[in-house]
Amino acid sequence: MIKAEIITIGDEILYGQITDTNTQWISAELDKIGIRTVRKSSVGDSEEAILEIFEESSKRADLVIVTGGLGPTKDDITKKTFCKYFNSELAVHQEALADLTEFFRKRGREVTGLNVGQAELPTNATFIRNTMGTAAGMWFEQNGIVYISMPGVPFEMKGMMTLTLLPKLQEYFKTPVIFHKVIRTIGIGESFLAEIIEPWEDALPENIKLAYLPSMGNVKLRLTGFGEDLATIEADVEEQFQKVLPTIQEFVYGFGNDEIEEVLGKILTEKKQTVSVAESCTGGYLAHQFTKVSGSSAYFMGGIVSYDNAVKINQLGVNAETLNTFGAVSEETIVEMAQNVRQLLGTTYGLATSGIAGPNGGTPEKPVGTVWIAIATENETITRKLTLGGFREQNIHMTTINILNLLRKLCL
Question: Are 168 and 205 members of one domain?
Answer without folding.
Answer: no
